[in-house]
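Design job #97: recover the sequence.
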């Protein structure tokens, strides 16, 4: 009985909360671990364990109590997960996948070894090595510097265009990538079950906040030619198979000015680019992840309606106890679905919630999303 299987989720942020909400429909026995009871997932379950998922002992002990362990964030203690896997515990995604993906350097090397198209790169140890390479003519400006670990939502990524920019290099082990001329950024979600069945979702188009480097708006389906959509699906399928992934994999692609597809990065878990699937697709990404790790039949990934998703970010200039200004007015707009994560404190650009807007006519959905953006403000 799936209801008896104890599933531990490392991470209790919004993704953990939405996993718990999906699992509660089938009365799944989910346990969440994160640092404190203020985290979003703690609001929807009393099976919340206070603990630090970066600590070996905490992860190992939780794993011992569970039948399956999964994640909603990559920054977990993979040594403990490897030990548990060795002892026969089911860990999805497999620790190898988490280890490969949480280090952007290992991720890029994996793409190279498996012929997955991605931008040319080199690995460096620190800022000095980068400056030396530029001086010696081994590295040309402009380029993109990405900290190998612990960067997310654009933090830890910077474009270096001029000699002057070299003053602000991160002094950390980094990936140096060619600066790609990007026409579009899209994401494709896929899931692979324990038995190896795979489903792929229609791609979504992402646009980014100009300064915060966070996804500001996401449009499903992406408005790209059928040929590119098919290629993106094929590459996503190849990647999820090559990784021997179990669970959801979100793959972010660049479409270059020459209409070439390059994999930017992947995430082995439910993802921001799949929030809309709760209302817009037959099977939400959260339910799909649970189906995959429980080795249940995978659900239909198709879109029921075009959708636009916007992240609700803390307004600049406000910090403190959160207040959602304009919420009631937004709720008067038809087919607008508001999700508030339950974070007590707002700060600039913190992800506080998201809104999914559905409309058969994508232009109308975009217009409604614009209205929501102008009306709903996360302030204090
Ligand atoms: P994060 O893991 O923090 O989300 P990404 O690697 O996705 O970081 O980079 C954040 C954004 O920076 C991308 O969505 C893209 O807009 C831009 N970017 C990243 N790599 C490149 C590149 N090689 N060329 C041009 N822009 C890039």
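Job complete. Output follows.
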């Amino acid at each position: 009985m799936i209801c008896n299987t104890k599933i531990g989720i490392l991470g209790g942020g919004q993704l953990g909360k939405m996993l718990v909400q999906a699992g509660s429909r089938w009365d799944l026995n989910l346990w969440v671990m994160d640092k404190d009871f203020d985290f979003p997932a703690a609001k929807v379950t009393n099976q919340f364990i206070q603990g630090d998922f970066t600590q070996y002992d905490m992860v190992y002990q939780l794993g011992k109590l569970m039948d399956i362990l999964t994640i909603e964030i990559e920054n977990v203690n993979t040594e403990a997960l490897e030990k548990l896997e060795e002892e026969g515990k089911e860990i999805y995604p497999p620790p190898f996948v988490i280890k490969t993906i949480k280090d952007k350097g290992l991720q890029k090397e994996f793409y190279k070894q498996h012929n997955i198209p991605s931008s040319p790169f080199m690995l460096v140890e620190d800022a000095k090595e980068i400056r030396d390479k530029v001086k010696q003519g081994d590295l040309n400006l402009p380029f993109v510097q990405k900290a190998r670990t612990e960067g997310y939502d654009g933090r830890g990524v910077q474009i270096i265009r001029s000699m002057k920019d070299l003053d602000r290099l991160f002094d950390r082990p980094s990936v140096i990538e060619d600066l790609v001329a990007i026409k579009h950024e899209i994401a494709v979600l896929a899931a692979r079950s324990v038995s190896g069945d795979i489903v792929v979702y229609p791609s979504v188009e992402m646009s980014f906040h100009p300064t915060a480097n966070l996804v500001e708006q996401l449009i499903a389906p992406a408005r790209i030619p059928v040929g590119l959509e098919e290629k993106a699906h094929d590459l996503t399928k190849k990647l999820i198979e090559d990784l021997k992934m179990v669970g959801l994999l979100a793959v972010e692609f660049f479409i270059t000015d020459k209409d070439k597809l390059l994999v930017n990065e992947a995430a082995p878990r439910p993802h921001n680019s799949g929030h809309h699937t709760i209302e817009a697709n037959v099977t939400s990404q959260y339910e799909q992840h649970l189906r995959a790790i429980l080795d249940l039949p995978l659900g239909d990934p198709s879109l029921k309606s075009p959708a636009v998703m916007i992240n609700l970010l803390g307004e600049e200039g406000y910090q403190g106890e959160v207040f959602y200004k304009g919420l009631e007015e937004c709720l008067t707009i038809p087919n607008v679905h508001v999700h508030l994560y339950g974070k007590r404190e707002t700060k600039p650009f913190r992800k506080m919630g998201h809104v999914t807007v559905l409309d058969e006519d994508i232009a109308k959905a975009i217009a409604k999303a614009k209205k929501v953006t102008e009306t709903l403000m996360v302030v204090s």
